[in-house]
Amino acid sequence: MGGLTFEQWQLLATQKKVERRAKIPKEWRIPRSLVKKWDEAESVIEFPATSGFFTKRELKITGATASDVVKNVAAGKWSAVEVTRAVCKRAAVAQQLVNCLTEICFEDALIRARELDEHFAAGKPLGPLHGLPISLKDQFNIPGLDTTLGYTSRVPSLPAYPSHLVASLLSSGAIIYAKTNIPTTILSGETSNKIFGTTLHPLNRSWTPGGSSGGESALVAFGGSHLGVGTDIGGSIRHPCLLTGLYGLRPSHGRIPMRGVEATMRGQEAVRSVAGPMCRSAADVRLFMASVLSSKPWIRDTQCLPIPWRIEEEHLPPVLCFGFATCDGDAAPTPPHRRAMDLVRKKLTAAGHVCIDFTPVEMPAARDVIDAFFNADGGAEFRSDLSASNEPFPAWLSSPTKRPALTVSETWEAQAERDRVAEDWLDRWNATEIVSSTGRPMDALISPGFHFPAIRHGCAKASNYAAIGAVLDLSTGVFPVTKVCPERDRVDHRDDDWTPMFDGDGEVMENYGGPEEYKDAPVGLQIMGRRLEEEKVTAMMGLISDVVGVDY
């Protein structure tokens, strides 16, 4: 569908929005009596609880965790139909308030839910996810629904077969009811494209919910999904989860099937995209991972490793050693993240665990490596996909597409640098055995996952903290800790006697501004293990959740 005129691609985008709107049942559309009040509201996070639009039963169901849902459905307390109806209704409201959905299939979801209830009545649950509605990022193929990657040139793009992960979820008893918004190219920290528009943060609609899985984070944070599936190649699960107060996991490549998942940078294998959960608890992370791996995805996906969910790897030593990152190699954490790190460190220490400092000096080099790989073709693919519809380039994309493509030799050099960074990181990680007092190296590294607790639209930036996990393919989780408090997160750099600790402190703190701009924004942290340690990292997130809780 190349060579579209300005009017043609705009018409395609308008038609997609009209189709999406038509799939929201009239009874789930926000009444005019509420529209004006909430259209003017900065935060819409309290709409479900205060608007009177939801019943107490619907609020209880949609406010539960994914783990609670499958337990209640399996116990016969909730039916798949009532869970699905409540979730679809809340997702429909989320769409009207924060623009998070791309494709809607509520009717099909309710048909599926009825079938699952009939199956349950005749015997037992279909699988470990029986009756759980799950939302999916745009990239996942579902027959009958478009997969656009944010390009109008891909409308329509109806796949013939589902992504293998979709098939795995369905075989486990899940219900698919919606796909969620992404940025053009799926490589931006801002979720916006010319087809569906910009997704907003439910806590403050002047903020972005992150990218590229920002549609998922906004939906889950609003309560329109118990568990969503995103993808991560440079932080696209972790950043959105951190910005919206969720739990998330970037598994190592090969644990979760990616066959049939659409992506940009096709054939780029130096840094791999992976799929993972975005949810409300560490238990939900485990539920997703264990359920998917119970279907033995390696039988049908050549990229999947034959590693089931290993329960024995969840058994943690009685005393763990946690490293705490003092910086990202360029700059110290901002005040809210410093406070979150201090809070977690104190509580882990009080619980008998060992906490040590670790300076991740490799992070800037990892960031340079990932930038090289993402721009290896000089932006040729992006230019091709955008020119197919003649839609304008996103402002953030203009610079990368002007870089020269790497030569073969330069690509090899970048790959060699990646391996050097990995070896240096591993050697220094192993060297912590000397100071851990546990007789082994540190078990995990805790750090911010991003410099800022919130980002205004149009201000998204990349992060050293996220790059290292992607480049080294580390099992990496994120979890919420607290929220920004202007009284406790005072801005040091405004004091006359403030002295920067690292070269990048001045720039980071200037961009940070002050805590007043981020009042009540979620503050979360990142936890990194070694490669292929998903079970251990998930268990450690659960331990931290139990020991620290969430200071809201």
UniProtKB/TrEMBL annotation:
- InterPro entries per record: Amidase_CS, Amidase_dom, AS_sf
- Reply yes or no: does the keyword Ribonucleoprotein apply: no
Substrates-to-products reaction catalysed: a monocarboxylic acid amide + H2O = a monocarboxylate + NH4(+)
Ligand binding (substrate):
186, 212, 233-236
Q: Which GO terms describe its molecular function?
A: amidase activity
Specify the Amidase domain's residue ranges: 82-537
Coiled coil region boundaries: none
Q: What are the positions of the active site? A: 137 (charge relay system), 212 (charge relay system), 236 (acyl-ester intermediate)
Stated family: Belongs to the amidase family.
In Swiss-Prot or TrEMBL terms, this protein is called amidase
This protein's species is: Zymoseptoria tritici (strain CBS 115943 / IPO323) (Speckled leaf blotch fungus)
